[in-house]
Amino acid sequence: MRRLLALFATVLLAVGAFGPRLAHADDVTKMVITDQKVGTGAQARDDTEVRINYTGWLYDAKAPDHHGAKFDSSYDSGRPLRFSVGAEEVIPGMDSGIKGMRVGGKRTLIIPSSLGYGRTGAGSDIPPNSALVFDIELLEVR
What we know:
There is one protein chain. By secondary structure, the protein is of the alpha+beta class. It has 3 helices and 6 strands, in the order H-E-E-E-H-E-H-E-E. The chain has a single domain, classed as Chitinase A, domain 3, CATH 3.10.50.40. The longest helix is centred in the first third of the chain and has 17 residues. It is globular.
């Protein structure tokens, strides 16, 4: 009987150690860029000023499309975000994730913590070490 219990316990440990595991925000080690719609207008690149609409969520491995809790949206405020690409005016993941987009395009970015707010987080809405998801619509390039 003891052998049977020991064998059962060993199998359970092996399944737990080698079986599938859930992804966590820590598992997001590189940025993932997915174009939802490719634009046809001017292209965002370093030293251009862009105007975007966006919605940002905390990354959630279990949620559909990894969209967890929403923390900000220019759609809600009615004020698109304007920034200069490559000038470090936004988080690094947003800065590099916008490059190559064309006006009229829509893109989803999954940004690891290291390219987001890192160990410090941002206020009460973005905890330290959080991976982020942004849906972006490029409205203008100057």
